[in-house]
Amino acid sequence: MKNEFIFKTPKTLLNKGSGYLCGYTHSLNPYTGCSFGCSYCYVRQMPVSLFRKGEWGTWVDIKLEAAALLRKELQKAKAKGKVTIFMSSSTDPYQPIEHKEMVTRSLLEVMVEDPPDFLFVQTRSPLVRRDIDLLILLKDRVRVSMTVETDLEEIRKHFTPDAPPINARLKTLQLLRDAGVPTQATIAPVLPSSEAFPEKLRSLVSRVCVDDYYMGDGSGGKRTRKLAIKPLYERFGLEEWYEPSAYRIVFDRLKQVFPADQLFLSQEGFEP
Ligand code: SF4
After folding, report:
1. What residues does 26 pair with on adjacent strands?
2. What's the CATH fold of domain 4-270?
């Protein structure tokens, strides 16, 4: 898919944490737009995407001079009290353009110099491994949450053809863990997966979060319904996985393998 990249100088970078992210003082998005363009991405139904001509997934705005701006905003925010940051809520900080532009890396460098109280890094990209050298310096003030919605590669390809392969994400979780970076596997949104999925995660993480469209799209599933992705389930005869109770299939399987205090449901799994 052809992508349009535009450089823009933002006025602000740290946004107030609200709604689903009310446990955070701030959210931080190094980019606007996301070239992974997942079929179920609820951001498609948000103003940032609705007021844009190009389809979600085909354009990315690259934030210029982001590090200098963050340095200033972080200092100001820290002077007022505790600072907890969720990166990112409406883009993937390690989408492919980050290889070249390194906006996310530049922001991490700022946060290593002047650490926030907590940084949550949400991604589905193995590229995060490039920044292990910085993440490790944040010690227990950081958690990298790797989206792994399924263990089945054909399901991944069906719902998110432009996202990275599942095995590369699992390998990245292993590398992060071996380096001592706090991690979690985030099964969100729950997609159809195999019975062996929990076992595949067990040796890699000691924290798993499960979330779905109904609990996790910030609108009780309304935004997701507008995306009309049910046909994607129907094509594979997987309608039962579109039901609001589907998360229980995975959660109950996980409970056979993980202790209860390592399992988190929806918002609690994203808390600082
Ligand atoms: S990676 Fe996240 S932000 Fe990007 S398209 Fe997929 S769900 Fe949306």
Report:
1. 16, 85
2. pyruvate-formate lyase- activating enzyme (3.80.30)
